[in-house]
Structure formats: structure tokens, C-alpha cells
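Task: sequence design from structure.
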């Protein structure tokens, strides 16, 4: 039997190829509690077709996964999301979205390997789920910014109140965002890059 035509494995799409001008790549991790919009952010901002590892939620997760505020959510990330965005012709960001449920947090060890910084997505309807996430980043010494995802039914608070509630130092950027919009998600990533650059400048020997 001739398999040459029927078993051909397609290669990457032309638009998925890494730009030939790219000179540096940075790994960024997008973290947050269950249902805060991590998969949405990676998908909205990625210039390539994002890789997702979503699985349909079943009754086995009832009582295990806290989906308050995300009752309509039918799928969940079980390993990671992956995307890529070119910030400039020379600088490329590789984006890794982490699983939100605590039972999958053991995967964080591998996902954080080599990461330069992180975005913490926050849902004001469930602010408490962000406490452990931020604590883990601080334990690892990973620089991060906080992005408050705009859900239609989510309460809005002054940034100063949110900063106090999350116990963030004054140097850590916190901003509103809409993870569904590419421009908004890109602004968050640019804020993170500026923050990382400022840390490098401030720590440079005089």
C-alpha cells in the first residue's frame, strides 16, 4: 500500500514560523486562579495558533474545583496554554498559561523553569484565589505584574484598595485589562517588560 499521500504529516503553517529577524526570546508565565482568563489572554494576544490543553469538566470535579463566578465554564486547562508574540522585530515572548486548579499546581515547577517574569490575572469576584498564587511567585522570586480582568458582573474597586487587599508593594504594577482584547493583553505584557527592564536597571552595579 502506498502511504506517501495519505500519511503525510503537515508541517507548521507559514505564519507560525519564527521571524528571521528574532534575536532574543523571553519566557513569560501567565498565572491565576481557576477561570480568571489565562487561556483567553494567551489566545487573544498570540500571533500563532495557540496550543491549549483544555479538557471538558465533569461531575468528578464537583466539590474539588471552585468554579464560583465561572458557572458557565465547561472546559479547563490541565497542563498549559502556549502562544507567541513579537514585541519588536528582534524580541519574541513565549507565553505559557498555567492550570488554575490547585490540584494541577505541581505542573508549575516545569512551567516556571527559565521564566523571566509573570502576569497574575485577577478576578475581583474571587479575589481570595489570588493570594496563594502571588505567594508562590514571591517564594520563587519571580517578578510579576497584576492584571485585573474585566468581567461584566465583577465589582470594581480603586486600584489602591486592590493593592492593599493583595498586599502588593508599591513597585509592583497593577492595571485593568480585558483578556479578550488583543490590544489590552499586549499592554499588560508591555507593562511587564518595562517592569523587568526597570528591575535590571535598578540592580545594575554603579
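Answer:
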Amino acid at each position: 500500500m502506498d502511504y506517501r499521500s495519505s500519511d503525510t504529516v503537515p508541517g507548521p503553517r507559514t505564519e507560525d514560523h519564527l521571524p528571521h529577524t528574532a534575536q532574543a526570546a523571553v519566557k513569560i508565565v501567565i498565572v491565576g486562579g481557576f477561570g480568571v482568563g489565562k487561556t483567553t489572554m494567551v489566545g487573544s494576544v498570540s500571533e500563532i495558533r495557540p496550543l491549549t490543553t483544555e479538557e471538558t469538566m465533569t461531575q468528578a470535579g464537583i466539590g474539588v474545583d471552585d468554579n464560583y463566578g465561572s458557572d458557565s465554564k465547561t472546559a479547563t486547562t490541565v497542563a498549559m496554554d502556549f502562544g507567541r508574540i513579537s514585541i519588536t522585530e528582534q524580541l519574541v515572548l513565549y507565553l505559557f498559561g498555567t492550570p488554575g486548579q490547585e490540584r494541577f499546581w505541581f505542573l508549575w515547577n516545569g512551567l516556571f523553569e527559565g521564566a523571566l517574569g509573570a502576569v497574575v490575572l485577577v478576578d475581583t469576584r474571587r479575589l481570595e484565589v489570588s493570594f496563594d498564587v502571588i505567594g508562590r511567585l514571591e517564594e520563587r522570586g519571580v517578578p510579576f505584574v497584576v492584571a485585573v480582568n474585566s468581567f461584566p458582573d465583577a465589582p470594581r474597586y480603586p486600584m489602591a484598595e486592590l493593592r492593599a487587599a493583595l498586599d502588593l508593594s508599591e513597585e509592583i504594577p497593577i492595571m485593568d485589562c480585558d483578556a479578550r482584547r488583543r490590544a489590552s493583553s499586549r499592554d499588560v505584557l508591555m507593562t511587564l517588560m518595562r517592569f523587568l527592564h526597570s528591575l535590571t536597571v535598578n540592580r545594575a552595579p554603579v
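The chain is about 25% helix and 20% strand.
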